[in-house]
Amino acid sequence: MRYVYGITSALLVGGTALALVTQSPVGAQVAQNEKSEIAKAVPRSGAPESFADLVEQLQPAVVNISTKQEVTLGVRLNPFAGTREPITQEQQGGGSGFLISSDGYIVTNNHVVTGGPRGEQVNEVTVTMTNQKEYRAKIVGRDATSDLALLKIDATGLPFVRFGESSKARVGDWVVAIGNPLGLGSTVTAGIISAVQRNIGSGGPYDRYIQTDTAINRGNSGGPLFDLQGNVVGINNMLISPVGANIGVNFAIPADAAAPVIAALKAGEKPQRGYLGIGIAPVGEDFAAALGLPKDRGEIIQRIEDGGPAAKAGLKRGDVVTKVDGRDVTPQQTLSYLIANVKPGARIPLEIIRDGKAMTVNAVVGTRPPEEELTGSNFDPEEEQTMPDDPKGSADQAIQDGLGMAVQPLTPAIAGSIGVERSTKGLVIAAVGSSSDAGRKGLRRGDVILSANRVPVTTSEALAKTIADAKKAGRTAVLLEILRRGQPPAFIPVRIDGK
């Protein structure tokens, strides 16, 4: 489960939403939330006198998830061998989840099965049923953007639930959450829906939640949020709290958003989302005053990616997009959200205002790149340089030890942000140690390494190999070809190990 303390956030530990099924004595399987069964538990209108019959039907499909992860905390020098060794520690976590099929598929939150500072997949996942039976689970797929994950256990004839239609949920509807908060095991809480499609301001294609006052705490993450018909309408995901515990402002991923992501993961595919290739800003009070437009109507295009879908459609910097395929662009229904939820390849009309005139532009929506690539477009060469305490792998460790710097692959997005040609191939320097030879020679964040010892390098492994080969040959330096914005490439010798 994710927590938001005021304006900061932290992960809670949890999952997703569906509707339950068990196997009859003769082998026929029926969903626990079949209308004929639920009708016995819940009156036709209003809340039941008790949720007991409803919970009895649904609870067996909700599971506890516990995880283990080996995390690298840093490195230490072995004085006897003269080598650096990683310092590791086993971390434990967990949350909730729910079965969506009788053969063991389980939905949960991605952050429940994620460990370490860089979002690594955990090493071990154990699922515990309400009857205390345990299974080792396999991670079928993860999607960080929607914070969803799909697990699989080796079993059959299991109780399960199905996704409902969250679009039919209304403010004021009763909902029931089942999960494993605070290490207490299966726990049931009830409340009402406080808001639907709540935008909490974090941006992105999935910044829309069902808000409830149902008590949710650490460990509820990934657990289902049921309506009174037994449908999973949401997947408990986060809470907002100044104290880190429930105060009645809790959020669930809508089932309508979760279902297609889970279907893609089950099919072994990566979820695809729409993309225009633009940088945008909301039309707030100042933009509205400058443009003569109503406040909070549309978003203004600040940047257009060369050759991207927006550029091909003829959109221009300064255009204000007011509608996407007939849907208004508002602070609650942002342009990023609307486009991301359009199927790639679809041709849609965009209503815009250009130089004070309303017009319509048709665009063919592209496929949204991976989040790490999009993050790269925000690479700021002027940002404070910080050497990572936990290099991602042996190659990164070798570069940090050998050259006193941290590097990362140069993507077209990063190239654009540091002012070099987007077609440039190489490694971009993320940080340089001030006491290293590279630092003394003026290398800095944002410089691009084109080659090492006259061999082109585009991966950390390639640069690490060049360093290793130089050491084997008895050399004490490597020749780096460095490209800096506004300057021609230059060769700079950098001593290995700062010697």
TrEMBL record:
PROSITE patterns: PDZ. Residues 269-338, 384-486 form the PDZ domain. Residues 369-395 are annotated as: Disordered. InterPro entries: PDZ (IPR001478), PDZ_sf (IPR036034), Peptidase_S1_PA (IPR009003), Peptidase_S1C (IPR001940). GO terms for biological process: proteolysis. GO terms for cellular component: periplasmic space. It is found in: Periplasm. GO terms for molecular function: serine-type endopeptidase activity. It catalyses: Acts on substrates that are at least partially unfolded. The cleavage site P1 residue is normally between a pair of hydrophobic residues, such as Val-|-Val. It comes from Sphingopyxis flava. SMART domains: PDZ. Its EC number is 3.4.21.107. This is Probable periplasmic serine endoprotease DegP-like. Keywords: Hydrolase, Periplasm, Protease, Serine protease, Signal, Stress response. Residues 1-19 form the signal peptide.
